[in-house]
């Protein structure tokens, strides 16, 4: 743990006391989002200290020219970068001519920041003494509306405490912004117009190259001691800025408040010529509803989300805060309404890394969204990849593949590759299998096969073609091999026959041939439509099966385990426990070559295979592999502990499982990796959810039934969660001794508890 | 071949006719240098067309901040970059108010450029018609003095052909220059003073960070029709520029000439406060000697170089021009006078790549310098690495090695690493062995063992310690393995047990233990001095031998060959002959991952081992390995064909040997790689020399004797070369049927010809 200033609380993230060195970290931790847009928790008033200003719009990106030390053939010339968007949260506050700035005021006291996760708003309050001696109480609250996802609202209040003052508010819009993360200091935005209309202001700008048009707009109302007042405005305007200055005299003890309504209207959802009209309409909605009504609706909407997604942990407030923070941030990042969007590794909390979508979505996030949202959301996640299929085929072509083979990018925004390390970009190809496993996982969980004939099969075929071409025949082994890959464990590069990759490829080819046959038989009209685009001959099907059946898997007879890759046993097999602590984390202490030739595993790799294909192996095999590989695992990826937590729980190693859970659930709150100021680790948050539900809840799908094998960490008194299983909402409560099951929605349900069938009757709570 | 505008001639590089698109290529090809400085063949007069201006000073560099896409631990923060230095060749020419500029004149005829390799000067002549109708004949000649290596001289003449004119010359110095190749557009030079003194001018500047101080100076004299005249000057001056303007009226047919003497005086060789005085003295030497006398001395000095280094090829003028161009450029780049300097991959002809020294020096250049220079030159090359030993130990420490282990950098200027691809920088460690082989090669060739007790042993010990630590024990193989390396064939990265690397390490460890024992026994006072710094225990020696003896070498029983690395036979073994020509060169047509998993070999790798350790293997073994590996070799490195030429010749495959020879000797003249405009491939030129002497001459050292096994390409009538062997200068002439040997210097000599001893008597020509 590298910080502990966040105060434990079950439903909120709290900070008390003002510390300048916490500002950038808190800007990440207190970020807000509504799935369509999001922003770091920057102050509304001016702040001249260290800050990382960021506001982001889902799907609005810029193709930044690639920059590398050494060019490798195949690198993309450009890649999509998350773009900092025009700023609309700012309100300059001037009191008797002095600007309010927490970096320069004489003193700050009672500073408090709250991210209210239950209700979905960010609040801040403090008392400041200005250099001119004026003491002020300041309180702000803001949120990004779930109901109107183009809209945000702020209520900002100042109360002079020791004298009568003149206060001016200058709410503003600013399109003169840059990215923290840019390769060549390109100008990303071109401002087209800065307009005003009564008390509304509009800046219309477009991104360079991608030409996303965005109208950023605001309108403001005012109260004194809660009573509406109207003020005349003066305008400050430049080519990329508009501020409306409102000034009035306020007596000691009176509270002067501004309600700022603002947001983004984009050409993703509107005709680019009608953006201003659309913005005007959104502002009118806000003005009509008022801050209070919008906030009340916000609370209702978040209550709806929590009613489905919440996990309650009894007896461990930090664990409770951690899991809710993870669930809250996932919901702020992605709500599944728009199949063009996805779950960025930093969500709307930072801009590190180009692109927004990793295999994390399929491998870690999909289960969370399947279980806590309507089925349509998971379908949208799958559809996202379906919509990128043409780009994935192009991507494979760039790397020399043909005949419609597809390689999904390592990182992407619009389907194009956004990464440029050859050992990852070109070689970490197991991601391609994650696309197919996600489809099969969706069908297994939802029982909805229709996605495959409608969309999935085209993806399945294209990926199978990739594996067929990527595997090559070894005369020596008389089997198919997959050379030159990087597995999930990125501490190995360019290895031959990574078990996880080979096994996944083997499975994909078999699964593909089965699905082609099934769709041809059971969904013939769909099959004809697909075959018109891309027909699969019997020879091709047979070839897939041939490669699948003859796929080489590295195995050690002596150790009776599958090897992570060829030659793994040639390494010096010193376990992590025997490694000097001063040498860790090895990704900071060791040069890259040393890491590569070591046996140390960054994140589950062979064990990832045992997680994904758990049913293919016995528990004894799992134990053997877990006992062999876990001791070499350094868990230096945020995606590693969750898989190990699940497997340790399955094996009954509960202390270990709890230890892994702790590493994943408070990663950002406690800033384990010393990088929270750059933004949050959004995708690994879904892994935390899996640790609880699949790990401690032991949830699996077996023969179209939910199955549980609950095991509770000894530190907890109990925990509960809900699952949307095929339209039925099941609540599961685990406590010492007994477990209870009840249905919030749906008809009676049979489930498995520790392997035994249990009937849960609608309207009744079943204890077992 | 990508160009053929260079006119074949035995002693010159010739270009006729003015083509703007040839300018940048010719600027590289016609480069001149004197070992201490060098410059591209930029025009003296202004040229507004496409040009790459470059003038470089040996040993003057700048630490450029590293730029990469993804940082890997261990990368150097900064690395030394070859610096473009203040320009002194410029002479602005204005005729009746119009500037002479070949890009804007009305017409150019009879343009001719000559690099006279025999005499060491660059000439250019043309007739131009200006826009104002004036026709001019222009002739220039310039050289960098071998005698005074801080000095260059230019004679530049203009003759008006159709009218009387007023001509002004403005010879100038300019320190406002930049690099073509820079990571962050840093300012590299800070100008301290721009001064003049009578008709001399001086600019003193220092490099940023490294603080090399350089005084660039000039003085000019004038003649009309050969008669000295004196002219008054006007000065044009800025903070980084000084020009002296001389104007006079010239009649039609009269020739107005300027002799410009200029050069660099640096703090490498002078106290930085006395640079201007030293520059003044150098200019005075030039003014006293005059252009003609300096040029005559230049011819003599180049005649001396050629008397030792020339290779004569009869019956093949392009081959003749090619080999002389290579020998000429090597001598322009490095003359061995200064052990701080080395042989940059682009010499003084461009600035691509940071650093100046690769393992090319030890593996390819050393034999050339040993055979064509005094022994001291080769010793200086070895001493260069001795002087960098502390930095090599630091470099190894950065990568986690300890106890005085050294890893020499992949690329360097001052001993620090200048490269940043992890697979090369950290893993292409065979370079460390090249340092030791070079020492043993030096001793074998020169018979001078004294270098080892004096300097070499410390390097040998430090490198042995590296190999000892880098090799790790494999419980599975029960042998030592070397994991995660890149061999000479850079089309394989991060492989295990590269045969060449393992074999070299095995040899180094054995050689090191032998040398420690020998020095301890035979050079005890040296040994004590060394042991005071770094003592080697008997246990350590035994450990070296243990690792050497138990070093694993990948071998295929089935094919009866050593494998390039573990798993090589798992590849799809399609030979280059069966590869579609449209797919080549693969480094342009294929993505990097595809190259890596292919069997294709960029440059000799296993065969490099058979070249270096030829004596360790039978000819049958060589043939078996050559026949196996050569068919997979794409020769996409400039260093590949020479080794294959030598081995093909040894195996009697003469057509193949000649084909390889052609690929290496005219690489730049015919611009095979379409990149000659960036500079020349200097180090591979030494490989061309080896192809002739070791390949066709069959030269080896056997039992302290020179040995020859001459084999001539059928296209040639004969060839001859000289060797400095232990102070004796042997001339070897090979022709169809008979070979002759004679001594230019030294007493009688016994050599081996085709395995039989032959006595060469001083003063006599021996035929055989």
How would you summarize the topology of this molecule?
The structure is a homodimer of 768-residue chains.
Chain A: E1 12-16, H1 23-29, E2 32-33, E3 37-39, E4 55-65, E5 78-84, E6 91-95, E7 98-99, E8 107-116, E9 121-129, E10 135-144, E11 151-160, E12 165-174, E13 189-197, E14 200-207, E15 213-224, E16 227-229, E17 233-238, E18 241-250, E19 256-266, H2 275-309, E20 311-314, H3 317-333, H4 360-372, H5 375-387, H6 389-398, H7 422-425, H8 430-446, H9 451-470, E21 472-474, E22 479-481, H10 499-522, H11 524-533, H12 538-549, E23 555-556, E24 561-562, H13 586-589, H14 592-597, H15 606-612, H16 619-629, H17 640-650, H18 654-665, H19 682-696, E25 700-702, E26 705-708, E27 718-725, E28 728-735, E29 739-745, E30 749-753, E31 756-760, E32 766-767
Parallel strand pairs in A: 26-30
Antiparallel strand pairs in A: 1-8, 2-3, 3-4, 4-5, 6-7, 6-12, 8-9, 9-10, 10-11, 11-19, 12-18, 13-14, 14-15, 15-16, 15-19, 17-18, 20-27, 21-22, 23-24, 25-26, 27-28, 28-29, 29-32, 30-31
Helix pairs in contact in A: 3-19, 4-5, 4-8, 4-19, 5-8, 5-9, 8-9, 8-10, 9-10, 10-11, 10-12, 10-15, 17-18, 17-19, 18-19
Name some characteristics of this structure:
five-stranded antiparallel β-sheet; alpha+beta; ten-stranded antiparallel β-sheet; Beta-galactosidase, Chain A, domain 5; 32 strands; homodimer
The largest chain-to-chain contact, stated as pair and per-chain residue counts, equals: A-B, 48 and 48 residues
What quaternary form is this?
Answer: homodimer
Gyration radius of chain A, rounded: 27 Å
Helical coverage of chain A, percent range: 25-40%
